[in-house]
Design goal:
Bound molecules: adenosine-5'-diphosphate
Strand order of the largest sheet: 3-2-1-4-5
CATH superfamily: HUPs
Length: 159
């Protein structure tokens, strides 16, 4: 049985993340989404808000669950009995840092491997940062995030 973790900030979850979740859920037997809470960046959404949004948008997947975690991804994976880390690749600009992280993780724990899923082209430009920028100026973000997330963003950036 293949158990995998999908770590990230998910601040907030976008349709790009969901595309990776949807496809990863078909490749592995069990997928645990890990929301990193010790990120150096000050998040827009609290860990509870991010957890709630991710749970809502992944509730239709019986083999997907969501947790928050603090610390190293390899420790989070090991704690959950997972030996695969899933990451999404948008463009070559993601490649260098993702390769470095994957190699570091593998050298810390040789039992853990990272698999990369390349984003669907329609989401290649999407990031949580870009979505927040668009939402901040009050533009339509319904093409970028699930509806419940769009509502949360509008609420957050109500001027
Ligand atoms: P982090 O801060 O760890 O990069 P993110 O929440 O930004 O966390 O991203 C989590 C994972 O999702 C990363 O592997 C990232 O490359 C991937 N990802 C983010 N946006 C997209 C997208 N639009 N399409 C595919 N993968 C994405």
């Amino acid at each position: 049985m293949t158990k995998a973790v999908y770590p990230g900030s998910f601040d907030p979850v976008t349709l790009g993340h969901l595309d990776i979740i949807d496809r990863a859920s078909k490749v592995v037997d069990e997928l645990i989404i890990g929301i990193l809470v010790n990120n150096k960046k000050e998040p827009t959404f609290t860990q509870e808000e991010r957890l709630e949004m991710l749970k809502e948008v992944t509730k239709k997947y019986p083999n997907v669950s969501v947790q928050t975690f603090d610390g190293m991804t390899v420790d989070f994976a090991k704690k959950n009995g997972a030996n695969v880390i899933v990451r999404g690749l948008r463009a070559v600009t993601d490649f260098e840092s993702e390769m470095q992280i994957a190699q570091t993780n593998h050298s810390i724990d040789a039992d853990i491997d990272t698999i990369f899923l390349t984003t669907s082209l329609e989401y290649a430009f999407l990031s949580s940062t870009i979505v927040k920028e668009v939402a901040y100026y009050g533009s339509d973000i319904s093409k970028f995030v699930p509806e419940c997330v769009a509502n949360k963003l509008l609420e957050k950036f109500k001027h």
